[in-house]
Amino acid sequence: MTENHFTLTFSCCDQPGIVFQVTKFLFDQGCNIVDSAQYNDRDTEKFFMRVSFVCSEESMTCDTFPALFGETANQLALDWNIYDRSRPQRVMILASKPMHCLIDLLYRYSIKDLNIEIPMIVSNHRDSYQLAASYDVPFLHLPITKENKASQELKLLDMVETEKIDLIVLARYMQVLTKETCAALPGRIINIHHSFLPSFKGAKPYHQAHHRGVKLIGATAHYVTEDLDEGPIIEQDVARVDHAMSPAQLVSVGRDIEKAVLARAVKAHTEHRVFLNGHKTVVFD
């Protein structure tokens, strides 16, 4: 018997009976819950839940689910989404000359560690076109200047619509997106950067950190907002360093952390385990 696998995510104001009503609905539809996670934020009085379930009814699809679930969702005033687990998320990757994060994502994609499709890699430089070709991923060179930035990002937004892109990943894309682009795709753009910020801004941050004798190096993956590098944080990590390490060694450590943190953030997002909660996130394991 073929079973269709879905993930239901929702948030709402906290109230009695949420879990009972949602799970009863799934039971009544002949669904079997595979796993679930929930969180009640007492500060915001919001409730978050992710439910993964299977259903043997062929009539159950992401298109038919809203009509079935609508009454329950309205009663509880849910902000919800349903996802077909068999459909990979479509991810557009933006990169510049640093390629360590891009290489790592492409490798994880190739071994199916990430349940994604990559319809396109976009870069403001040509350096990664051969890398994209080696993974049989289309590559677009989109050079950016002060004069053409707005028009080039309009092209980018058109491609997001045309290619039905679910997520944009800035894999060390060394350009600041316009506020219009950020506003058009809330919660759908992930960036990675070193965690020294707001210290050691600008060029050669690891050399600046070395000069100050830092003992921890880290990276932060977050959703992109109009506030530069201050969007809701999805994932972070750190590593200890010491006085004997050169700036080049710090850079090497930083690259390893950046690519691991970005990959974990992309995996969490594309598995629908991340919920926006104001200026922060709820991330289920």
C-alpha geometry:
globular
> Gap between N and C termini, in Å?
29 Å
Helix share, percent: 25-40%
- Biggest beta sheet attributes: 7 strands, mixed
Helix count from the secondary structure assignment:
8
Number of domains: 2
Summary?
The protein has 2 domains: 4-84, Alpha-Beta Plaits (2-Layer Sandwich); 89-283, Rossmann fold (3-Layer(aba) Sandwich), CATH 3.40.50.170. 32% of the residues lie in helices and 31% in strands. It contains 8 helices and 13 strands.
Q: If you had to describe this structure to a student in words, what would you say it looks like?
A:
The chain has helices at 18-28, 65-76, 100-110, 129-134, 149-162, 179-184, 205-212, 247-270; strands at residues 4-13, 31-41, 46-55, 79-84, 89-95, 116-123, 139-141, 167-170, 189-194, 216-223, 233-240, 274-277, 280-283. The protein is an alpha/beta fold. The chain folds into 2 domains: 4-84, Alpha-Beta Plaits, CATH 3.30.70; 89-283, Formyl transferase, N-terminal domain (Rossmann fold), CATH 3.40.50.170. The strands form 3 sheets. Strands 7-6-5-8-9-10-11 form a 7-stranded mixed sheet. The protein has a 4-stranded antiparallel sheet with strand order 2-3-1-4, with helices on one face. The protein has a two-stranded antiparallel ribbon with strand order 12-13. The longest helix is centred in the last third of the chain and has 24 residues, at 247-270. The radius of gyration is 21 Å and the shape is globular.
Q: SSE layout and pairings?
A:
Blueprint: E1 4-13, H1 18-28, E2 31-41, E3 46-55, H2 65-76, E4 79-84, E5 89-95, H3 100-110, E6 116-123, H4 129-134, E7 139-141, H5 149-162, E8 167-170, H6 179-184, E9 189-194, H7 205-212, E10 216-223, E11 233-240, H8 247-270, E12 274-277, E13 280-283
Parallel strand pairs: 5-6, 5-8, 6-7, 8-9
Antiparallel strand pairs: 1-3, 1-4, 2-3, 9-10, 10-11, 12-13
